[in-house]
Amino acid sequence: MVGEVEDLKTTLCGLVRLNDGRIIGDISEVSLPTRFVFFLLGPKGSLLENEESARCLSTMLVDEVFREVAYKARELDDIIAGIDEFLEQVTVLPPGEWDPKIRIEPPDKVPDQEGLPSRDILLMHHTQPLDKWPSHRSTPRHEQDVLVTGPAVKL
Fold this sequence. Notes:
- The protein is α+β, with helices and mostly antiparallel strands.
- 28% of the residues lie in helices and 16% in strands.
């Protein structure tokens, strides 16, 4: 859910994980059980930017590994580690160079999973700073493109 609020001065963002998948009615375009609800509210004039951020998160939630990490996350750092891992593995096509008439065939062979960090590493309870993790980039957290705010709460 994305929107803009006239009196809001900063962006408000939340990702809610439901214990069980639920049909959420008119909010969703499809009648499938939903386990995650994402909301992003921003000040007036931020709607297009916020829609792009929500589109990015929905793309990540389609990925099986990221979805599992998000479902098992216990705290914010678990989600950030999942985002980092997704960004390291994703292939992005620049929109100006993509011809919709050309279909990109999937690879003949799935890339080797040997070099990827195990899900256990991504899901472990963090006792050390993220920059010590094997999959973490050295970018300071306040400079990252994606910022998820708020604590993980069990419902």
